[in-house]
Amino acid sequence: MTDTRPIGVFDSGVGGLTVVHELRRTLPGESLVYLADLRNFPYGPRPQAEVRALALAIIEHLVSLDTKLVVIACNTATAAALNLARERFDIPIVGVIAPGAQAAAAATETGRVAVLSTEGTRASNEYVHALKEANPGVSVLGIAAPELVGIVESGDADSVRAAAALHPLVDRALQWNADTLVLGCTHYPLLQPALRR
Ligand code: DGL
């Protein structure tokens, strides 16, 4: 018999909806419960221990709603809490850093990968670890871009303001000769139209 319980998904805000979009596309038969922790948004500038505590409390809540699996649809929370959450809870818990790192390690031809993320994710070095796990020869440039999170959350993802904020960040990655750019925050895929321009 199929397990009809929902999948729990959370983020600090709208960013995790980019993950929900992919879940709906790839697993159309599943029901989802989405939680945006807007009370504590943004997670990026908070100390790791604080983000870890927030994430564990949310997972506990999602488990109490009888979810069968939890997706931490936030890179900052994945970096801070995934390992501990897997030890603490019996249901499967999925993060977003390893899949992105594996895709980038497979995509790069020169081995130079730049990662745009929140300060919290960059400070954790989790992308560096995951990228080098996938390909030990890869070089990684971490760029913290906290201002992008607020731009997306306020609905300005496809705007002149967004393009102006992205410009120096992308320039930095290109000057470093990156051939692959990881959007290491679930808010950032919403910036793709501005990024392409
Ligand atoms: N969407 C979250 C992430 O992937 C973070 C945004 C925030 O700073 O709260 O890291």
Would you give an account of this structure?
The strands form two sheets. The chain has a four-stranded parallel sheet with strand order 2-1-3-4, sandwiched between helices. With 197 residues, it is an alpha/beta fold. Helices cover 49% and strands 16% of the residues. It is built from nine helices and seven strands. The chain starts with 6 loop residues before the first strand and ends with a helix. The protein binds D-glutamic acid. Residues 11-13, 15, 41-44, 74-76, 118, 121, 149, 185-187 line the site of D-glutamic acid (DGL). D-glutamic acid (DGL) binds next to helix 3.
Rg: 17 Å
How far apart lie the N and C ends? 48 Å
How much of the residues is beta strand, in percent? 15-25%
Sheet/helix structural class: alpha/beta
Total strands: 7
What average pLDDT do the residues reach? 97
Major sheet, described briefly?
A: 4 strands, parallel
The 3D shape can be described as globular
Q: Would you kindly provide a brief summary of this structure?
A:
The protein is an alpha/beta fold. It has helices at residues 17-26, 48-64, 75-88, 97-107, 119-124, 126-134, 146-153, 160-175, 192-196, and strands spanning 7-11, 32-36, 69-72, 93-94, 112-117, 139-144, 180-183. The strands form two sheets. Strands 2-1-3-4 form a four-stranded parallel β-sheet, sandwiched between helices. Strands 6-5-7 form a three-stranded parallel β-sheet.
